[in-house]
Structures are given as C-alpha cells and as structure tokens.
Write a structure and sequence with these properties.
single chain, 139 residues, mainly alpha, 2 domains
Length: 139
C-alpha cells in the first residue's frame, strides 16, 4: 500500500487512490477513535481526520510511515474533539429517571431555582488530557 507509485497518486490528490486508502483504514480508525471520543463521535472524527489527511497528503514528507502519519492525524482530531466535548454540559440525566418532563418550561422549573441557579448543579468536568488522567490514575 505504501509503494512509491501509490504514494505519488495520493500526493497528486488522486481520488481513486484516496478512496482505496480510506477503505483500507476506515474501520481501524473508528476503532482507535472510540475510546477517546465515544461511539457517538467516532465516525465524525474519522471523517474530519479523512478530510485533514486528504488536504495534507501533498505535503506528506515520508518521515514516518503513511500509516503512522494517518493515525497521528486521527489522534489529533480525536483529542481536539474530546477537548471540545469535555467543555460542554449535557442536560440529559439532570433529573431523576422517575420524573417525566412534559416540556422545556417544566424542565427549567424543575432544574433551576427562581434566581437562575441550578437546584442540583451538574458535576464538574476535568479539563485534563486523557494522558494526564491516565497518569493520575497510575500514580
């Protein structure tokens, strides 16, 4: 797959060669992205990485294998997505399961005090990178 001819086609932005590359690596890229961003974002991260790979292929210098280079781009995209999604608060699951929400207004009344503060604030999020979290667990 990394023959000089194939790399030349990729660097020349040959769509057929790129489709072949995507078909070869797609499933393994999704498998790598899942633990970082979760099932719901893995496919999207792989698509974003694929676009980045296609745009960067003409500049590929071959200092690493094509496979290593592709996985590095995927890792960067996944970590970027992880950081974005860790800075958001999901409103799902903020109310007990036995409480049925009839409308947004009902939910707002049940979730917030009259002064606009949370009745039960969402848990804080950790802004550390996955690597830092793993190192903390290992220590």
């Amino acid at each position: 797959m990394e023959s000089a001819g194939f790399l030349g086609k990729l660097k020349a932005e040959d769509h057929q060669a790129f489709n072949q590359l995507v078909q070869q690596y797609h499933q393994s890229l999704v498998t790598v992205a899942r633990p970082i961003v979760g099932d719901s974002w893995a496919e999207e991260v792989v698509q974003e990485a694929s676009v980045s790979i296609f745009k960067a292929l003409p500049k590929f210098q071959g200092r690493s294998t094509l496979k290593t280079w592709i996985y590095t781009i995927l890792k960067n995209e996944a970590l970027s997505r992880y950081k974005k999604q860790s800075k958001t608060v999901s409103l799902e699951g903020q109310l007990p399961d036995d409480q049925q929400v009839r409308s947004v207004d009902d939910w707002l009344n049940d979730a917030f005090k009259k002064d606009g503060h949370w009745i039960n604030p969402p848990s804080g999020w950790d802004l550390s990178s996955p690597e830092a979290l793993m190192q903390g667990e290992q220590l």
